Structures are given as C-alpha cells and as structure tokens.
C-alpha cells in the first residue's frame, strides 16, 4: 500500500488541483511515492467539518494516512450579522473544533503528521470588487470578512498547534510579508492565485521535509526506468516489488 | 469508500499533475466525487508495465478502481538501433502487452471502465532540438522516435480497443488535426504543453461522460454547503453521510 497524505479543508483545498494549484503540485512532487488525497469542501467551516470526520477518517483503518493538512478558518471567520453569517463560527469554538479534528486524526493514527494551516489574509477591497462583479449595486456595503478578524482566527490556529506540539503554517502572516500580497496572492480577496498557491505549496513542502516526509527521501515503489536492465528486466522488479 | 479512477501510464501520465496537467484537471473535476490515482512511470514501456500489475492492481481487492486509463506506447515506439533502443518494444508485443494489461484489469473487476490512449504524435524536429539542447554536438544525428512509427503503435492500440470492445482515444490522430500541433501541443517533440494536456483532458472527460462516469452525475459524498441549515446542520449530514 502506498502512503496517503490527505489534504482536508475548505474551498482553498478543494480548488487546489486547478492549474497552478498547491495540491496538484504536491501530487507531482510525490508522484511515485505517496498519494495526495483531496478532501476539500468549499464553504465548509470547522463546525460542519466535524460531521465528516468518521466518514473521511474511519477509526481502525488498516492503512491510515501518514500525514494530513487541516486548512480551515476562512469561513469560520465570516462575520456575524453580514452576508456570509451562515458560515460564521465563534473564535473559541473554532479553536475547539480544530482540537477535535486533531484529536480524531491522532486517534486514527498516533503517528500521523498533522499540519494546521491558518486561513490566508483577506483583501477587503478585493472582496468588495468581487461582490460588485456578481451583484452590481445590490452588493453588500459592508465586508463579510475582514483581514483583522481573520488574523485573530489565524492566531488561535497557531496557538493550538503550539499547545498540541504540531507544526503549523501561518499563511495569514506569511503572505502579508510580501508587498502587493492583496492582488499577487488573492484572486477575489480570499481565494488564491497561482502565486498564492505557490506560497502554500512551498510552505507545506517545507514542513513535510522538516518532519522527515520529504518526497526524494521516501522509498520508491517501483524501479526508475534507468535501473531496469533491458535484457533482464525482471531483476530490477524482484528487488523492489516482491 | 470513494470511487477510484486510476491513470496508469508512462511519463505523460506521471507529469500530468504539473501546472496545466490533464491528471490534475481530472482531479479537479471529480474533487468531491472520485479520487484520481496517479500511477505514471516515466520511461516505462508496456513490457515493464506488466511487472507492476499485481503490485498496483491486486486481485481480490474489496474496492477495485471504477475506471482506469492505460496510456503507453511512446516508449515502446522508440526505434531499435537508435539512442532509446533500451525502451523499444516490437509492435506485435506492444499490442499483446496491452491485451495482458486489460485482461488483468478486467480480472480485478469486470465492471472497470478501461480506456486505452495511444501515444501522442512525435515532432521529430522538436526531439532533435531537445537532444541538441542537452548534448550539443554529441546529440544523435538520427531520430530515436519517428512520427510514422509511433502512428503504427497508435493504430495497434485502437485496433485492440475495438477487438476488446473498449473505448479508446487516438491522440496521435486527434492532435494532428490541429495546425501547428508540433509546437502547440508538444514541449520537446514528445511531452505535452498545457495545450496538449488540455486535449488529453478533454478527450478523457468526453469518454468518461459517454460511459456514464461524468463527474456532475456521480453521487456527492457529502452535502454542498448551501444545503446545510446553519441552525440544524446535523440534518443535512444524516441524509447523506449515515
């Protein structure tokens, strides 16, 4: 059985196999080593994600994933009283839901590498422009997400990772280190451009490498074609595939 | 268990999760419906692929793939007596090896949709330019693959699909319908540009749709976020996830 790495999250995970996406880039890195399993659910917050845990990560599996990224918060941080209120989850509940997710994953497999990823920053102007492009004059006047509030969610996510001794990626901070992050990394003020996807890919690859899960160092499932003797191919396969 | 669609082939499959790749595009289409499982092995021909069958597609699996693409021939068609001779597989053996692959997959699961894909056409000038870029004056003077010979392999592949009643994609013919296919679809005379990847994606999606495996028509694993009642989320999950 080939190792599985599950990427679990909201739309930013669901869309990660589009052109230039971070999930596809990981799948390319691990193409002959591990499967990148896409479990992204657009619009989901951590409260709704809890309902999926037993379905997606059944306890007692003979071959649980070796690693998982948990990438929620962009919807939890939608503001109460605004147009995306349905998705809002209070900050303390967000943290506790993340804790429950981690707890479940570790119950699946104590050895699983669990990486928490914070939501990206919000470009409020970009969100407004996107709303106007969809709804014209009927677009909301007030933002449904603010960068400041999303930053509080990011802080809680990183805080929890520290409490639990897990690696985390503070995407909210990381992206804002680059000038012009608003348009460079975000396509509609929230979702990622190819450049924004490259930041996630680079960070996830870095964390996996640091945790000893680097693709080049993982054992190869089958021989490289250059190792196959054209006159006696069986030899190479007996070594690795028996 | 979520349905699995395996893409099995050589480097053109292995590289299909790079930016703009056809495998990643399929994974995006099926993101909440099925897993696209990458089993691409650069440099492999059908003779070497046979050694992988029991390893990649064990008989007696409780959840065999629902579909598989089989995409070999670009290496089999490397010419005997030229620089890629190691990879050459005689034309009749190529066809018989493909038959063995199909036979194994159908033994895994008689219901599995097996789609045969021919190698793409060869831009001999592009291959030469690529060799010169790598080896300078030491590059081969004679092509290691020709478009004509690869076309014979493509014909045998389609012929076998007809004999076995399987769908097939004649990529060799399809790509040559477009003027300027040499540079438009091929990056080094053999591997695919993003536009070339788009042709494969479009053809595979068409065949899957015709066979009743279209992503929009497959059942959804979990509710869309718009179906979740913010005040009573459990309801939506009880319907679909129990």
From TrEMBL, chains A, B:
GO terms for molecular function: hydrolase activity, acting on ester bonds. Residues 215-235 are annotated as: Disordered. Signal peptide: none annotated. InterPro entries: GDSL, Iah1-like, SGNH_hydro_sf. It holds the Pfam family Lipase_GDSL. It comes from the Eukaryota. Keywords: Hydrolase. Residues 222-234 have a biased composition (Basic and acidic residues). PANTHER family: GDSL-LIKE LIPASE_ACYLHYDROLASE FAMILY PROTEIN, EXPRESSED, ISOAMYL ACETATE-HYDROLYZING ESTERASE 1. Belongs to the 'GDSL' lipolytic enzyme family. This is GDSL esterase/lipase.
């Amino acid at each position: 059985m080939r190792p599985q790495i599950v990427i679990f999250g909201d739309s930013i995970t669901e869309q990660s196999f589009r052109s230039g996406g971070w999930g596809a880039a990981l799948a390319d890195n691990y193409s002959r080593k591990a499967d990148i399993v896409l479990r992204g659910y657009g619009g989901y917050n951590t409260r709704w994600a809890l309902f999926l845990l037993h379905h997606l990560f059944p306890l007692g599996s003979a071959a649980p994933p070796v690693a998982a990224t948990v990438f929620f918060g962009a919807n939890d941080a939608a503001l109460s009283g605004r147009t995306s209120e349905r998705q809002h989850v209070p900050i303390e509940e967000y943290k506790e839901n993340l804790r429950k997710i981690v707890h479940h994953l570790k119950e699946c497999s104590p050895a699983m590498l669990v990486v928490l990823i914070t939501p990206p920053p919000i470009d409020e102007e970009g969100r407004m422009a996107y709303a106007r492009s969809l709804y014209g004059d009927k677009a909301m006047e007030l933002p449904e997400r603010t960068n400041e509030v999303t930053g509080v969610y990011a802080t809680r996510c990183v805080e929890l990772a520290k409490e639990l001794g897990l690696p985390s990626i503070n995407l909210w901070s990381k992206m804002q280190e680059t000038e012009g992050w608003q348009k460079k990394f975000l396509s509609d003020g929230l979702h990622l451009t190819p450049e924004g996807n490259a930041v996630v890919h680079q960070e996830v690859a870095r964390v996996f490498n640091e945790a000893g899960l680097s693709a080049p160092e993982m054992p190869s499932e089958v021989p490289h074609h250059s190792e196959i003797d054209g006159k006696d191919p069986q030899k190479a396969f007996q070594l690795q595939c028996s």
